[in-house]
Amino acid sequence: MSVVFLHGWLDNAGSFKALMEQIHQLNPKLHLLAVDHFGHGLSSHKSRDNYYPFHDYIADMYQLLDELSPNRLMLVGHSLGALIASCYSAAFPEQVEALVQIEGTGPLTESPSNSLQRLRNG
């Protein structure tokens, strides 16, 4: 199994370094991979006349994982990474064994007085 870590908006793959080191100590046979999305961390930025549509994150992940991992995937995403992981899981369920979302709920659209009940109800 490959465990793929996807960071949040304005973050980078380095945020998972300590966690990956701990997981590697517990199970060195796991294939661990942390990804810098375009325009984040050590990855390239797109040209000034280009932009970052959300669906490109899914296509980028597919191209990368198709090359790097023949294994089933456990996707671990934080914030934007959780949304990407969720959409990737829906698009390619045959590749995904497990999905872990950290703060992956997106912005609240309820009034503050209704937010707690909305979160409890799902």
UniProtKB/TrEMBL annotation:
SUPFAM superfamilies membership: alpha/beta-Hydrolases
Residue ranges of domain AB hydrolase-1 in the record: 3-107
GO CC term (a single one): membrane
Keyword Hydrolase attributed: yes
Organism in which the protein naturally occurs: Vibrio parahaemolyticus
InterPro entries referenced in this protein's UniProt entry, alphabetically: AB_hydrolase_1, AB_hydrolase_fold, AB_hydrolase_sf
Stretches assigned to coiled coil: none
Name used for this protein in its record: Alpha/beta hydrolase
UniProt keyword list: Hydrolase
GO molecular function: hydrolase activity
Lineage: Bacteria, Pseudomonadati, Pseudomonadota, Gammaproteobacteria, Vibrionales
Pfam families named in the record: Abhydrolase_1
